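Fold this complex.
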Amino acid sequence: MPANSASRQLSASFRDPSGFLFSRNGILYRQINHAYSEDYARLMDSGLYEKLVKANLLIPHVETDQAPAESDAGFKVIQPELAPFISYPYEWSFSQLKDAALATLSIHKRALKMGMSLKDASAYNIQFVRGKAMLIDTLSFEVYKEGEPWTAYKQFCQHFLAPLALMAYRDVRLSQLLRVYIDGVPLDLASELLPFKTKLNFGLLTHIHIHAGSQKRYSDKVVEPRKGSMSQQAMIGLIESLEGTVKKLTWTPAGTEWGAYYDATNYTDSAFEHKKQLVREWAVEKKPSLVWDLGGNTGVFSREAATSGAFTVSFDIDPAAVEQNYQVVKKNKEQNLLPLVLDLTNPSPAIGWDHAERDSFGQRGPADMALALAVIHHLAISNNVPLPQLAQFFAARTKWLVIEFVPKSDSQVKRLLSSRKDIFPTYTREGFEAAFLEQFILHKAEHVNDSERVLYLLESR
Amino acid sequence: MHFSPLPYLDPGSGSLIIQIVIAALLGIGVAVRASWGSIKKLFGFKPKADDDDTDGDAS
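Structure:
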């Protein structure tokens, strides 16, 4: 095959001269450059690759005989296993970011034992695959030379330690700083935002506060440490200190927006069970491979969809609900469910160089099936989105839509309208159907038992 | 001297210096622990299994 036939280099991986990702005929490959051949050989021959893959810490790959996309630099082309859905650290709950941090350190430690080192510690190199935080960048390893410091130390502190400390000690919503700062939270900012008591924590004192001070002090100086300036023992001490510091950071959801939502609704058990049954039946019938549950709360209905075998992403605006959902994934070792934090009224944008390093929420679609359960009143009434625009939004993002219409007579809608003027004359079942059937074909409409709500199965036109 | 080869990420001057200082300090702890382990072993205590060698999940 000619080297450049229909191959497209992916813009997220331009920084590393070791190689890059490209897609050819719809398949994702990674080119390894000659410059990286020695490190790659060590990774594969030392047994480190096998060990990490077995421990679910590194994405498996196969070597292919594909021609390199850039043949001059190319040494080999590998085909990594695909992550079913790419997510970003600003979409993770506290424990997801923490597990990603611990996976990164564990990989580095294991690499050191086999004469290699992790040369970068980017949170974007970690993805959740089969329920586990896994390194997806096979080219992140280099041969370790004793005496050299960890080049990724600063990056680890910015991508993981600073946001985790801010979430644990200040406010969990500060994870959103990662959406602004693509290379992690600047340490001087973290140091300024963290409460004083974090200076009494040895790990945070050194790795964030003093680290930030040192960055400022040496910001315009060139430093060339002596050879052998950091023994392997010192390196292990550093990694264990980071590990201990991360492990001690905790956050428990309390006073959550939705924590008691299911208890406070006017749902009867029978309505709840009926809704679960319909979601399960329709998912099994339509066999989607990717389901997005938009407004998934703690994932009750996502799990019904996932029983069809679909990989299900359960999005919710509330970090506490996502945290609880993730804890269930871990406890039950669920492999096809990914909880993520997302504000549907302001979804993740495309960020980075040329808006092309991290995809927007929309770019990562469309899904085969989307669930929009008990969410339309929040979008149409709380956020004032007209129904035709809502229909367009969903039609662009999914083939099948399972959507629940919640009428004005429902107590949840009454609550939303109690403190504001009702400027929504078209928010009726008829108005809903008129708007949505412009974009979708009606397959099913079922009254949910013991409620005034209707569940629709729609197919985009 | 330069690290060989130069890393493609800038490790940052201030980050490098503080890392070396902190790590030197923490390295002493590792060394003490290692020698303490061999002293204990001398007296017949079994060394604790390193959890990083167990293959399983890291979380």
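The first strand of chain A starts at residue 7 and ends at 9.
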